[in-house]
Design a protein that fits this description.
Shape: globular
Structural class: alpha/beta
Number of helices: 11
Radius of gyration: 18 Å
Distance between the termini: 35 Å
Strand content: 5-15%
Number of strands: 6
Oligomer: single chain
Strand order of the largest sheet: 2-1-3-4-5-6
């Protein structure tokens, strides 16, 4: 965390008390983390995300009252700036794809360790996306098996944009891409925004998905 960054206020939404207690405990000592709130179902998660000052939600998918997918949609609709990290055992590519479409910023397996969770939190803090490597490989394979026709929009991407979209798909940040291509991060961000406009996509996650579908 750099000097100008404030600690993130977290909301941990999971219907298993052991998970919320455990995550709260391991994250409480981190200087990058501020207040930690908990919710035991999707409805509670939505209510707290919208009423408390929450920066990031760690969300389970299978929860009573309201599941993680519906909760994500409601939170993102009202407060799109809230980052959502899904931590779940449900890592089937079709589920991951649905969650990304709903607007989640990161997706990691519940089997993961503290280091990967902190890495995902840091990525979303910097407005980047994060998907566990094993999950992203499965997702890419799943998407590549679909028959996707090359669209006219793809042909309109410049050589530089195609270079950048490949790096984005590899999970590189604007700064990392800028370093590789000897550009300024602002230029990379402009290219990213141009591609989103050209391809009529909403966010970086959908750009990664597009890159996977079009190989």
């Amino acid at each position: 965390m750099t000097a100008h960054q404030l600690p993130l206020n977290l909301l941990i939404a999971d219907d298993h008390q052991l998970i919320t207690d455990g995550l709260s405990q391991i994250l409480a000592t981190e200087t990058t983390i501020g207040e930690i709130h908990t919710a035991k179902n999707g409805k509670q998660a939505v209510d707290k995300a919208l009423s408390e000052h929450i920066d990031c939600v760690i969300m389970d998918i299978n929860m009573p009252v309201l599941n993680g997918l519906e909760a994500t949609k409601l939170i993102k609709k009202e407060k799109p700036e809230i980052k959502i990290i899904v931590v779940s055992m449900l890592c089937d590519p079709s589920v991951v794809s649905k969650m990304l479409k709903a607007g989640v910023d990161a997706f990691i397996n519940k089997d993961t360790g503290k280091a990967e969770l902190l890495a995902a939190i840091e990525k979303v803090r910097q407005d980047e996306k994060y998907i566990s490597p094993g999950i992203s490989n499965d997702l890419f394979r799943h998407l590549n098996h679909r028959n996707v026709n090359t669209s006219s929009t793809e042909k309109r991407l410049t050589a530089r944009e195609l270079e950048i979209i490949r790096y984005i798909a590899d999970g590189l940040t604007n700064h990392e891409i800028a370093g590789k291509l000897f550009l300024s991060p602002v230029t990379v961000d402009t290219h990213r925004k141009n591609m989103l406009a050209k391809l009529q996509l909403k966010n970086t996650a959908s750009l990664v998905k597009y890159a996977a579908e079009h190989k």
